[in-house]
Design goal:
Elements (H helix, E strand, L loop, with lengths): L1 H31 L26 H9 L2
């Protein structure tokens, strides 16, 4: 009986930690950290890979269409 009671308390504490303790800890860390100054003008180079199969007839049109992304 005592083992079952200990297991119940441990599981209860884990649930409380998951839904209350951990989010509070992350909020405290976020409030205490100093955010960096971000350069919002920076635009990284992005590559898009689209797998194609048997597209020899329409590959040119597909590439032109995908360039507009």
């Amino acid at each position: 009986m005592t083992l079952l009671l200990i297991l119940l308390y441990v599981l209860s504490l884990l649930l409380r930690w998951q839904f209350v303790g951990y989010p509070l800890l992350m909020a405290i860390i976020a409030l205490k950290s100093n955010p960096e100054n971000k350069d919002y003008a920076f635009q990284p180079f992005v590559s898009i890979m689209v797998p194609r199969y048997n597209e020899g007839k329409v590959i040119e049109k597909s590439i032109k269409r995908d360039n507009h992304l």
